[in-house]
Amino acid sequence: AKEKERKKAALMSTREEILAQVEKDARLNDNFVLLVILSAIVAAIGLLENNLAVIVGAMVIAPLLGPNIAFSLGASLGEKKLVIESLKTLAVGIAVAILFSIGIGLLWPGSFDSMELMSRTDVAYSGTAIALASGAAAALSLVSGTSGVLVGVMVAVALMPPAVTIGLMLSIGEYHHASGAALLLAVNIVCINLSSKLVFLFRGIKPRIWLEAHRAKQSRLLYIGAWVVLLVLLFIMIYLRHRAQ
Length: 245
Description:
Layout: H1 2-25, H2 30-48, H3 52-61, H4 65-77, H5 80-107, H6 115-118, H7 127-144, H8 149-171, H9 175-202, H10 210-244
């Protein structure tokens, strides 16, 4: 009984610490927007110049891990305010990345046919495994208290290059390629959030008060169900897109 109480107390402490950290990382502020802008600029140049090292460098400064993991955790704990705040932050981040990429594309004097850029204009089923692994790793690093820097890079790799590719392709009127990048971005967002949510579920991250836990359970089931349905629909869209090519 004492061991059970000790584990329960440790879990409560972990939950509160995780929530406090995630709430901070999910806030939309000037630093977040500035980091997104810098990351988008560097990523765009890396994609256009076919320079993988530059692309990875852009991912190091991309702050997209925070809002993604906050969105998933908020659903696990039934924290509606956190869900809304993180969703707003993520949406603004992606929108800013796309808008600045359009600007870069309009000013770019060179070609838009690099291998790194074109690889982000289509979706391969195997690519979903990377996004799923990124989301799971992000949640595990948060729960275990290990460093999330490299995990943040993994998550950013799945999100920032496709977002930047959307903007670059829109800037030159390549709407088919832009839609492919948008589909890739959507699949990666769904996979990251679904896998991180499942990790929180299996690790027992939930509200400690019964009523809150009951509400969170309903939110959790709705959340997982919605992501699964979205993923299936996106896979159907991928299939139809490949079939039409």
